[in-house]
Amino acid sequence: MxxxxxxxxxxxxxxxxxxxxxxxxxxxxxxASAANSEIYKQLDLFGEVLERVxxxxxxxxxxxxxxxxxxxxxxxxxxxxxxxxxxxxFRDMQVQTRGEFGGLGIEVTMENxxxxxxxxxxxxxxxxAGLMSGDLITHLDKEQILGLTLQEAVEKMRGxxxxxxxxxxxxxxxxxxxxxxxxxxxxxxxPVKYNAEGDDVGYIRITTFNEQTTDNLVKAVDDLKKxxxxxxxxxxxxxxxxxxxxxxxxxxxxxxxxxQGAIVLTRGRNLEETQRSNARKGDITDGKKIxxxxxxxxxxxxxxVAGALQDHHRATVIGTRSFGKGSVQTIIPLGSSGALRLxxxxxxxxxxxxxxxxxxxxxxxxxEELPDDLKKKEDVIGTRGEANLRGHLxxxxxxxxxxxxxxxxxVPEDKEKDTQxxxxxxxxxxxxxxxxxLKQKAEAAN
Length: 446
Description:
The chain is α+β, with helices and mostly antiparallel strands. The chain is built from 11 helices and 19 strands. It has helices at residues 2-56, 63-76, 87-98, 125-128, 150-157, 213-228, 247-257, 301-311, 372-381, 419-428, 434-445; strands at residues 83-85, 100-103, 106-111, 114-120, 136-140, 143-144, 164-170, 178-183, 185-188, 192-197, 201-206, 234-238, 262-267, 275-278, 289-294, 316-319, 327-333, 339-348, 364-365. Helix 6 (213-228) runs parallel beside helix 7 (247-257) and helix 7 (247-257) packs parallel to helix 8. Strand 10 (192-197) and strand 11 (201-206) form a beta hairpin. Strands 3, 4, 5, 6, 7 and 8 form a 6-stranded antiparallel beta sheet that branches. The chain has a 6-stranded mixed beta sheet with strand order 10-11-12-15-16-19, sandwiched between helices.
C-alpha cells in the first residue's frame, strides 16, 4: 500500500510540474510562435520562388549558383561588408591573411591581353629564374594567356611548393619569345616596405594587415635604427590606401608604438561581447617622433592604428579624411561549404569615438595635387567613403545628415611630387611646426 501511495504522489507531482511548465510555455508561446510562423511562411515563399525559377527560367539554372546568390543577397542586405565566401573565395581570403602561398614571386598586371611583370620579388623563384620588370608572359605551360582574366592567370601561376611551371616570355630587345622553367616555392607577402629618407628619417609603408605585418614592422624599425643611428629624428608611418585586414594585427601594430592605455574598444550586440584592448609597455621606436599619413583609401584596421596613435597624442596624423569603416567582421567557417563573413561588432577609438561613416580627421589636412586627367574624373565620380555605401551601418553618435567620410586616394608615384610625404618630412625635421601650421590654417579660415 505504501509503495502504491508513493507512486500516486509521485505521479501527482509530475502532473503538477508538467501543468506548470505548460502554463509557462503557453504564457510565452504566442509571440515566439508568431515569429516562427512568419519565418516558416517566408521560407515557404522562398521555396516556391526557387522551384518556379528551376522549372520555368528560360535556361536551366545551376542550383548551387541560385542558393549562393540567395545567401549573398541576404547578407548584403545587412551591410556592405557581410558576405558569403564560397570555398574558392574562402581559400583566397586565407592566402591574403596568412601572407604566404605557393607561387613564383612576381608582381604582375595585365596589358593587351597578356601578363606583364611589374617586378620580381627579391629572393623568389621568379627573381632566381631571371625574370625582369617589363617582361610579357604570353603562355603558361604552353597554353596561351589571351582570353584569361588577370586573376585566372595568377591562379594558374600559383600552386603547390616544388611544382614546376613553364613560362613563355617576350622581352624587349630579344627577337624571339623564349621559355623559362620556374619551380614554385613558398612566397611571403611582405606588407611592410621601408627606406631611409635622407640620413635622418625612417619611412615605413604598411600596405595591409596580414599575419606578417607586426613582425615585418619590427624588422623595419630595427633596420632603420641601424642604418640611421644617432641621426634618426623620427618615422613616417604611411597608411595611405591601406584597406585594412586583421584586427589583432592592427592592435599589435598600435601596441608597438604605445607604452600604455587603451588601443580599441569593440562592442557587439550583447553586453558580454564588449572587449577592450590595452597596450603593453614597450615602444619599439624608443619614443621617437611619428607622423602618420592617411587618405580616403585608409580603412578599417589602418583607421584603428591612426585613431589610437592620434588619441594618445603619440603621432601627428596628416593627409585627408579616412574611409570611415568602423565595424568588425568575423569569419565563420562553414566546413566544406566555405565561410560566412559577418559584421559582429562596432569599434571605437580610445577616447570613445566611433569613426563609422565619419572617418579619422587628420590634425593637418594636406591635399595632393591631382593631375589634369584625374581632376576631370573626380568631378564626375567624387570621393567615396563608408558614408557613400548603400546600406552602411549608421553612426550611433552622429546624425545621418552629418555623416561624411572618405577623400581623395591619389598618391603620386614620384616622391618628389608627394606633397603629403614631404610635409611629413618637414615636420619631423623641424622645418614646419604643428602649432604654427594649425595657427596659420585657423587664421586663413577666419
